[in-house]
Amino acid sequence: MRENVTTFRAIRIDNDQSAYRAAYVDFDDAGLMDGDVDIDVTHSTVNYKDGLAVTGKAPVVRRFPMIPGVDFAGRVTRSAHADFSPGDEIIAGGCGLGEQHLGGLAQHARVSGDWLIHRPKGLSPAQAMAIGSAGYTAMLCVLALERHGLGPDRGPVVVTGAAGGVGSVAVALLAALGWRVVASTGRPDEEAYLKNLGAAEIIDRAELSAPGKPLQRQRFAAGVDAVGSVTLANVLAQTQFDGAVAACGLAQGMDLPATVAPFILRGVSLLGVEAVRPSIPQRRLAWERLARDLDMGKLVAMTETIRFEEALDKARAIVAGKIRGRLVVEIG
After folding, report:
1. CB–CB of 240/218 below 8 Å?
2. Do 28 and 75 share a domain, yes or no?
3. Which residue, of 272, 287, 315, is where some domain finishes?
4. Range of the domain at 221
5. ∠ CA 297-298-302, rounded to 5°
């Protein structure tokens, strides 16, 4: 029984004057941070942000030691929160997990119940983590475009970074909703993969990643951008009148070398998507839509399931651009 166990396996990141390092350790329950819900973690994921945390390529981690893992699924073992009871199946994501609060790449977690939602019926823990923060972010982008009044009847939608975690789910979601999806990727060998997810057209990221004119040929009614920088500037410059782009990532960079021309001459809107601390009602809506709208067969096609012992190597590989789609980690 867990109450008789004082340690559990986890990935721990340390940073001191000698080195920045990530390793598997036996972590003591006493080292967990404050929270009113304890969870036995069954599944987690490896996201790009987890890769940054593990490698130290960007200052993602805000405290040390840190357990990475921005999301996880599991079962409640102890709760002092009114909405959760032992045995409840939950999903956690964002809210500083793996950055400011110990995350989900571990056998056990303790968090605030305000950060949790009950796992929707029809989704297994593995499916929930195949979706994970990346798929949840993609759904928030779709919801942002819909709130703006955009639908498939307006024209094509471009998805940048299409072979990545956010991009893969965005392609599958938008295609399932009837959009004509143009997938931008720097991996030409992924054309069959992206078309299987529902992309109608594949374009090389080079078409968007080099500096271009402030206004260009109008190609897209909408966009989901996980890349930022010059790529986002070009997508905005190629968006049609009254179109919109949902921006959620910075794989190319945090800068935006654009002009106001698309906004004031074509009425283009840039919709920022923040996936770390949205409201609980918004979380629930996004997950309900994912359970309803995402083709689970397509989810299988974009997912690789790995053992916990493989997670560190995969975290390093994702930063190197060697991973496509989603990685599910079986913690068990």
Report:
1. yes
2. yes
3. 272
4. 134-272
5. 120
Instruction: Kindly state the tokens that stand for 21.
Output: 């390092």
Pair (245, 213) in one structural domain: yes
pLDDT tens track for 117-149: 999 988 999 999 999 988 999 999 999 999 999
The pLDDT tens digits for 23-79 are 999 999 999 999 999 999 999 999 989 999 999 998 999 999 999 999 999 999 999
Same domain (yes/no): 203, 111: no
φ, ψ of residue 37 in degrees (nearest 5): -135, 130
What per-residue string of b and e applies to 109-141 under the rule 16 or more CB within 10 Å gives b? bbbebebbbebbeebebbbbbbbbbbbbbbbbb
Which tokens is 34 given? Answer: 């404050």
| Residue owning tokens 């967990």 | 32
Distance CA 85, CA 212 (A): 55
One-letter-per-residue 3-state SS of the chain? CHHHCCEEEEEEEEECCCCEEEEEEEEEHHHCCCCCEEEEEEEEECCHHHHHHHHCCCCCCCCCCECCCCEEEEEEEEECCCCCCCCCEEEEECCCECCCECCCCECEEEECHHHEEECCCCCCHHHHHHHHHHHHHHHHHHHHHHHCCCCHHHCCEEECCCCCHHHHHHHHHHHHCCCCEEEEECCHHHHHHHHHHCCCEEEECHHHHCCCCCCCCCCEEEEEECCEHHHHHHHHHCEEEEEEEEECCCCCECCCCCCCHHHHHCCCEEEECCCCCCCHHHHHHHHHHHHHHCCHHHHHHCEEEEEHHHHHHHHHHHHCCCCCCEEEEECC
The answer to whether position 291 is within a domain reads: no
Contact 256, 227 (CB under 8 A): no
